[in-house]
Design goal:
The chain is an alpha+beta fold. It is 20% helix and 35% strand. It has 2 domains: 37 residues; 152 residues. The strands form 2 sheets. The chain has a 6-stranded antiparallel β-sheet.
Length: 207
């Protein structure tokens, strides 16, 4: 009887120890978890976007009669902007304002602008007309942009904007209008029945 009683007591003791350990573990996990307070903040929707350089080009032929302005942008028709001039029937001694181009910075970034002669080709009976033509370009601030032989135009950098104080840095919506004047010497004798075809390029660069 005493041996069986001891065995039973040991089993009860082990069962009690296991129960105590289970209760203790539950307390550590359950009650400890309830005591872990939290606070949360979130930074959502962060973004990074770039600006662009964009221009509007409005060309108007003014000689002999004003024509409808042709508007283009580099995004849509960079290679198909309107002609600046279309003179016909000129004779030695010709001199007139032949066209204008209004340039506007429509992009978000400050920019500088330059004008360059892409090409000037003489066709027809003569071969010197482009070189004989004198080109004068002025802007709406009254500044002289270029005055010389058409074929020597090359690149004229750092054009002035017209809005605000004169500056070569154009901010968004800054604009200027450039007037083209052509003259043919009265002494020319080799330019009869000739045509000079010229291409001009306006280049915008982030400032």
């Amino acid at each position: 009887m005493s041996i069986e009683r001891k065995t039973s007591d040991r089993r009860k003791l082990r069962a009690g120890m296991v129960f105590v350990l289970v209760v203790a573990g539950t307390a550590m996990i359950g009650w400890g978890g309830l005591a872990a307070w939290q606070a949360v903040t979130a930074n959502d929707g962060s973004s990074f976007a770039t600006g662009g350089v964009h221009m509007q080009n409005v060309a108007t032929i003014s000689y002999p009669n004003g024509q409808t302005p042709v508007t283009c942008t580099e995004q849509v028709s960079s290679g198909n902007c309107g002609a600046i001039f279309a003179v016909t029937g000129a004779a030695p001694g010709f001199s007139a304002s032949v066209g204008t181009v209004q340039i506007t910075n429509t992009g978000a970034l400050p920019s500088t602008f330059a004008l360059s002669l892409g090409s000037a080709v003489t066709s027809g009976a003569g071969s010197t007309l482009c070189g004989d033509l004198t080109l004068t370009i002025t802007d709406s601030t009254g500044a002289s942009v270029y005055n010389g032989a058409l074929t020597n135009l090359g690149t004229t950098p750092n054009l002035f904007k017209a809005t605000g104080s004169p500056s070569t840095t154009w901010n968004q919506n800054d604009t200027n209008t450039f007037t083209f004047n052509l003259a043919l010497p009265g002494s020319t004798s080799t330019d009869q029945d000739s045509t000079c075809t010229a291409d001009f390029t306006w280049t915008q660069t982030q400032a």
